[in-house]
Amino acid sequence: MYSAPLVWQDKHFQLRPIDTLNFDIERQNLRQCLLNSRRDIKLVCVNATTERLRDEVTRGCTCLHYSGHGSPSHLSFENGCGGLHVVDDKRLRSLCAAGGVQKLQFVFVSACYSQRAGQAFADAGVPHVCCVDVDEQLLDRAAQVFTHAFYLAVACGNTIRGAFEVGVSAVAAAPNIHSKESDKFLLLPKDANHDIVLFEGVPRLSSRRRRRNPTLTGAEDLGLMILPAVPENFLGRNVEMYRLLEGLSRRRLLSVNGPRSMGKTALAIAVSHYMAQRQMFRNGVFFVRLDGMRDSEAMIRAISHAVGLTERHGSEKRSSNDTRLFDALKTKRCVVVLDHCDDVMHCVDFRNSLGRLLDHTRNLKLILTARVAVGSLPGFTEDTINLRRLLPGDAMNLLLKLSPDADLSLRGSERDRALHLMQTHPVLSKLDLGWPGRCVALANNLRTRNSKSESDGLVSLLLEDHGDETRISEQVRQLEKLLDGEFESVAAKDDSDRFDVSGPE
C-alpha cells in the first residue's frame, strides 16, 4: 500500500501541499524481488485508504507493506481524491479488528517515526511487524535498500529474523548512506519468535509461468502504458491537482487555463497518472492531444482512436462515427483529457460536439486544457483551474531539478542552503521564473553555457562573485533577452493574485 496525499488543510482551512513521494522505484524493487525468488507470490499494489486497508485484511493477505509519510502519532493515508486522511494507532487497531488479521502474518510500515503504528498492528494480533524507531526520520534511499534486501531474502526462504538482519546489513554497507541509518529499523514484538519462514510451502514457478506471472504487472500499469510520461519540469502543483480531482467529484466538465508555458499539459498528464495509478475510474483515463486540429470531426476521430475505436472510412457519414463513440462510452465510467484545445476551440461545432458527448454518456468526465475557459455548456457547468506563476521556492526547486550539474542528493539543511542561495541570487532573483517554461529555458541556457565555457552550469552561477552591479545587470539583460522572446507577456499582478491557486467555489 502506498500513500501520496497531495495536500493537507491547516487550522484556517487553507490547502497546503505535501511533499510528493515517488513509489516507482519501490514497486519495481518489490516486483523484481518476487521475480528473482521464482515463487508463486501475488503482489497487489493499491493506494492507502482506510477502505483499502480493511478490504485487503479481510481478503486474507499474508503480507502487508505500507509506504508513505509518518509521524510519531499517526500515518498519512489518502482520502480518495488527493487529500490527507490522518490515521492514528487507535484507528489502525480498530481497522485490523474490523477486517480480521487471522491470515495476516507480516506488516512492514515503511515510514518515518512509525514505531507506534507498528505497535498498533502488533497489538491487533499481527505476529511480525517491521517499522522505524519513533524518534527517527528515515532516508528514502535507506528505505529502498532495506526493502529490496529484506523482501528478496524472505521470498527466497529466509526466516523473518534472518531477512531483517540481511536488510539491516545491506543498509549499513550501502554507499552514500550513513551506517547509523541501519539502526532505525525495528522488528516487533521484541520478545516474539521471528524464526519462521513467511512463504513456506509456496510453490516455485516454471520459466514459462514466470514470464506470464501477473505478479509483475499491476492493474494500474495497464492504464499508465497509454499515457504520456510526466514531464520532468512538473513540480509545485499539488494544490491544483487536488482541486482538479475534487472538482471531478462534483462536475463532468473541467478546464485548466493559463498562458503558454505555464504548465497546463504537465498538470493534466500528472493528474491522469494519479487517477490511473489509483484506478479512480473503472474504465480508465484517456489522454487526447488536439494540437493543430481545427474541426470537431478531427477531435471525434482522435477521441475514438484513444478509446480503442477504429475509424470508419468511405461513404460512412460523420454521424456514424459520433454514434459509435457515444455508444462505446455510454455507460463507461472514465475520464477523457483533451489537451491543447486552443485551435479546435475556434470551430463553430466544437461546443456542440462536447455537449453531445456529455449528453449521450452517463459517467464520462472531461478535462480540457486551453489558454481560456470553454464556458459552460447547456446543462453542464464548467469548473476552471486558472494556473498562476509558481511560488519562488517551487520555482527554485524546479530549476535545481532541471540543472544537470545540481546535486539532487542534497538533503535537509544542505538543500535548504542551496535553495536559499538561489532565491537570493542577484541574477536569479531579478528573473521572472514563476513560469515553468522559463525555468526550463534557463536550465537549457545554463547547459549551453556550461558546454561552451566548461563552467559548472548552475553551481558556477551560484558561486560567482556578483558584487559588480554592472555585471549583474548585464547578465540579467542577456538572460532576459534569451527568455522573453519565447513567452507571451502578461499583465503585472499583485502578489495575492500572482500566487493565488484557488479555483471557483
Termini separation: 32 Å
Looking across the biggest beta sheet, what order are the strands in? 10-11-12-9-13
**Sheet having the most strands:** 5 strands, parallel
Characterize the overall form: globular
Beta strand count = 13
What is the second-level CATH architecture of the largest domain?
3-Layer(aba) Sandwich
- Figure out the total of helices: 19
Rg calculated over all Cα atoms: 26 Å
Helix content: 40-55%
- CATH class value of the largest domain: Alpha Beta
The secondary structure category is: alpha/beta
Identify low-pLDDT runs.
Answer: 211-220, 486-505
Instruction: Tell me the CATH topology of the largest domain.
Output: Rossmann fold
Mean pLDDT over the full residue set = 82
Query: How much strand?
Result: 5-15%
Count of domain modules: 3
